[in-house]
């Protein structure tokens, strides 16, 4: 009798999940496995992938060169025509990387060391390289191949994943949750690393920071109650914390596709995708439905947002896009049950590349080329997927689910 009840409950919940996404059924799409035939690679931690130039992608993850060895930072790159084999960069690393690029000849990666300090590795173009050179100041740097610069220990002690942004060439700002649960900040000003500073607050998880222009940073985090908190740097000083409501859970994903616009996404109390958006004058909120794990959202141009999520079961990947209005959910691929975050990047308008590590520690890849998602079901590169049937009418999320509170009214605590 107990077994029958469990089976009925599971069936009801699965039907609710299908209804919440309100999308047509499509054939299962497999990910591209970037570790097929290799004996090493990621070890299951989320990757961090960046694009520093058109048709260039660099992916980083914790991995091992041989089974049983200490984990190090691994790098794999797409050079425009092929994936280059994994490179082990070593380092004293225990947490997933956060990587950023301020230009075609520079990548900076940050990880948590075994002593919970911030560790930094960087790559830079070779001086006076041949082909694909750019000029930074008076120096010519090669962009075809980046050279490993080594490791720095930036100190500190923190308990969250890292969030770093770059709002100009030669500028990086990194943020973490300290052992006191406050937001802590350290930055590279173009010539040196400045000391850690506390920005206060009480964080319940990882901060998420974005920049819409030079001298502007907006940081978001959930407090221990799951309410979204916001603090921002506006040219000369940090503004105080403001409460954007909740409750939410998990990690936040924020983007800015134009000056004076921010869109943040989080999982609501009913596991639906919620948006909190600053439209230039006020914060607004919207329930986008679904039954999800933490979102990964990206923009490849003004007025465009793409959110990629796992279902709450962890077995399917879904996509929803904004372009003048929100489109319906679509299922992209099946996925083995896995809770790790995805990493998406874009190297041109109309292009998205998303990566995760499977439950077996393999780096996987799915991408949008401007017309369709790849790989197709039949062949990962040569056979296009048939167009799906027209989507059904939009279905609302469950009526009795608890919903986050409304955002502050217009003019209340808005960014300056």
Overall domain count:
1
CATH class annotation: Mainly Beta
Termini separation: 61 Å
Q: Could you state the CATH homologous superfamily?
A: Fucose-specific lectin
Q: What does the largest sheet look like? A: 5 strands, antiparallel
Task: Examine the secondary-structure arrangement and name the CATH architecture.
Answer: 6 Propeller
Give your account of this protein's structure.
By secondary structure, this protein is mostly beta strands. It has a single domain (about 1-120, about 150-375), classed as Fucose-specific lectin (Neuraminidase). Helix content is about 5%, strand content about 45%. Strands 1, 28, 29, 30 and 31 form a five-stranded antiparallel β-sheet that branches. Strands 2, 3, 4, 5 and 6 form a five-stranded antiparallel β-sheet that branches. The longest helix has 20 residues, at about 1-20. The protein is globular and about 50 Å long. The termini are far apart. The relative contact order is 0.14.
């Amino acid at each position: 009798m107990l077994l029958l009840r469990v089976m009925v409950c599971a069936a009801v919940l699965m039907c609710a999940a299908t209804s919440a996404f309100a999308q047509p059924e499509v054939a299962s799409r497999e990910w591209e496995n970037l570790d097929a035939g290799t004996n090493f690679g990621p070890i299951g931690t989320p990757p961090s992938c960046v694009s520093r130039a058109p048709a260039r992608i660099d992916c980083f993850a914790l991995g091992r060169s041989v089974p049983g060895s200490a984990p190090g930072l691994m790098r794999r790159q797409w050079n425009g025509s092929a994936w280059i084999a994994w490179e082990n960069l070593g380092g004293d690393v225990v947490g997933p990387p956060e990587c950023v690029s301020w230009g075609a000849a520079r990548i900076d990666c940050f990880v948590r060391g075994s002593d919970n300090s911030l560790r930094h590795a960087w790559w830079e173009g070779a001086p006076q390289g041949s082909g694909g050179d750019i000029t930074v100041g008076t120096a010519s740097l090669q962009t075809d191949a980046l050279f490993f610069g080594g490791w720095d220990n930036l100190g500190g002690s923190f308990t969250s994943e890292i969030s770093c942004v770059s709002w100009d060439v030669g500028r990086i700002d990194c943020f973490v949750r300290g052992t006191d649960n406050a937001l802590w900040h350290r930055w590279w000003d173009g010539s040196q690393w400045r000391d850690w500073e506390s920005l206060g607050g009480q964080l319940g998880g990882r901060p998420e920071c974005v920049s819409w222009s030079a001298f502007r940073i907006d940081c978001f985090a959930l407090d221990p109650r799951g309410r979204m908190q916001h603090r921002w740097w506006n040219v000369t000083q940090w503004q105080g914390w403001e409460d954007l409501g909740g409750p939410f859970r998990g990690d936040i994903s924020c983007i800015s596709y134009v000056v004076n616009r921010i869109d943040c996404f989080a999982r609501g109390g009913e596991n639906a995708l919620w948006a909190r958006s600053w439209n230039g004058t006020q914060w607004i909120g919207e329930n986008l439905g679904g039954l999800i794990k933490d979102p990964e959202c990206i923009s490849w141009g003004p007025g465009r947002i793409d959110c990629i999520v796992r279902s709450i079961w962890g077995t399917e990947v879904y996509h929803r896009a904004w372009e003048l209005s929100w489109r319906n959910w679509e299922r992209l691929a099946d996925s083995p049950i896995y809770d790790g975050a995805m990493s998406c990047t874009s190297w041109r308008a109309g292009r998205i590349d998303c990566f995760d590590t499977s439950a077996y520690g393999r780096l996987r890849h799915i991408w949008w080329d401007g017309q369709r998602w790849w790989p197709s079901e039949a062949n990962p590169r040569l056979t296009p997927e048939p167009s799906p049937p027209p989507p059904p009418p939009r279905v609302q999320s469950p009526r009795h689910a608890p919903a986050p509170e409304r955002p502050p009214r217009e003019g209340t605590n808005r960014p300056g």
